[in-house]
Write a structure and sequence with these properties.
This protein has about 375 residues and is of the alpha/beta class. It has helices at about 10-35, 60-75, 90-105, 120-130, 150-155, 170-175, 180-190, 205-220, 250-280, 295-320, 325-330, 340-350, and strands spanning about 35-40, 80-90, 110-115, 135-140, 160-165, 225-230, 240-245, 320-325, 355-360, 370-375. The radius of gyration is 22 Å and the shape is globular. The model has no long low-confidence stretch (mean pLDDT about 95). Bound molecules: S-adenosylmethionine.
Length: about 375
């Protein structure tokens, strides 16, 4: 993908592409290594607002380049899965550009372009994906066009996972706008009227995102669902959330690994955007000290999430001994809680005598799949 310089004043899109590129690479490689086929579906593909003539700053190019490199990497390991990519675009003029990009595309990834809206193409998508493992990307411009009823047949497929751009900032601005058509379209997006009760909730953001995550989880009967938050470049507020649902514990672990990289990138991209903004306003150049300092807002958020992880760990263990492979995805469903954090909590619990861990080898310190964890001393509440 292109460097952040191509994404001036839309750094959030850079971070979305950074996330997509890394997660797509991971899932395509993992599935391509063990299965004969993999398909990627971009349900709102564009190309949209590209600065690069060759569209290197669009999800289309980013995905095709990444899938080609995954294919080459797998070929070096004597694995030759069929890798396909399906793109859906509603606007006829944008679709014409999409067709052209796909025609010019060189590589072994088989591509298909579907004209028209996502809603009108749901059956075609399900049909074309067939029984292949699919990674589905839903990246709309607002909250319309991907009603939960339309998403359901895609979510319910047995093999695959989904990443949806939940446009929080946009939705939030219209949440209190009392207009019947607006409210009904939000009902369709959420697949429930429950969002209405969140309007006056002081913790509106987590309440709204969690409602959407749970709706996706239920619609697709996913055992695991979560999200990652992308901030506005200039303000400590959410722009959007990438909602992710999977049937694989490994998927949750990998999603969080990618989030960890995105958080570091986000830190540096936002500090640069904020410095440039101040310079534009003051007309004075500032010294660039680099971007290795975490913002107080981020530090606070992560501390809160780690406390939640500790509470979730305790709640799970209070039910009785639990296998590491059961515990891990449930804890890592919490945003900003990474596998290293979980392992540290377990090792500290073992050292303090609060936890027992069965299945560790004599020289092993880090718990892993196959270990069973139990609570030895109960915490007083
Ligand atoms: C946010 S842009 C996509 C950006 C692209 N995924 C990227 O990251 O480069 C949304 C795209 O979806 C198209 N679109 C809007 N409504 C749609 C719908 N109901 N179905 C399919 N495409 C739609 C728009 O024309 C636009 O090109």
């Amino acid at each position: 993908m292109k460097p952040v310089g191509y994404y001036k004043d839309r750094e959030q899109t850079y971070l979305k592409h950074f996330f997509l590129e890394r997660y797509l690479e991971t899932v395509a490689y993992h599935i391509g290594y063990s299965q004969k086929e993999f398909v990627y579906v971009d349900c709102f593909s564009g190309p949209w607002r590209a600065e690069d003539e060759e569209l290197g700053d669009t999800s289309i190019r980013i995905a095709l380049d990444r899938l080609n490199s995954v294919r080459n990497g797998l070929a070096q390991r004597q694995k030759y899965p069929s890798i396909r990519a399906i793109f859906v675009e509603k606007s006829p003029s944008v679709f014409a550009t999409l067709k052209q990009v796909l025609q010019e595309h060189r590589g072994d990834v088989k591509t298909t372009a579907l004209a028209g809206s996502f809603e009108d193409n749901v059956d075609r998508i399900v049909d074309q994906v067939g029984s292949t493992f699919a990674f589905i990307f839903v990246d709309p411009t607002g909250w319309s066009g991907f009603a939960m009823d339309n998403l359901r047949p895609i979510l319910q497929r047995a093999k695959g996972e989904v990443m949806i751009n939940f446009m929080y900032d946009f939705i939030n601005r219209f949440l209190t706008f009392q207009n019947a058509a607006n409210e009904e379209s939000l009902d369709r997006c959420f697949g429930t009227r429950e969002w209405r009760s969140i309007r006056d909730n002081p913790d509106r953001e987590p309440a709204l995102v969690n409602l959407y995550v749970e709706q996706v989880r239920t619609a697709g009967c996913f055992p695991y669902a979560t999200f990652s938050r992308i901030l506005k470049p200039l303000h400590d507020r959410a722009y959007f959330h990438l909602v992710y649902a999977t049937r694989s514990a490994k998927g949750i672990e990998q999603f969080r690994e990618v989030e960890k990289k995105v958080v570091t990138e986000q830190q540096s991209v936002r500090q640069k955007a904020q410095r440039e903004h101040r310079e534009r306003k003051s007309g004075q150049a500032e010294i660039d000290f680099g971007a290795d300092v975490q913002s107080p807002g981020f530090r606070h958020e992560r501390e809160q999430q780690l406390r939640k992880a500790d509470a979730r760990l305790t709640a799970l263990l209070e039910e009785g001994p639990v296998g590491y492979e059961v515990l891990q995805p449930r804890v890592l469903e919490l945003p900003l809680v990474w596998n290293t954090d979980l392992n540290e909590m377990l090792v500290n619990g073992l050292r303090s005598g609060r936890l027992g861990i069965q299945g560790l080898g004599p020289r092993e310190r880090t718990p892993k799949a196959g270990c069973t964890i139990r609570l030895k001393t109960r915490t007083l509440s």
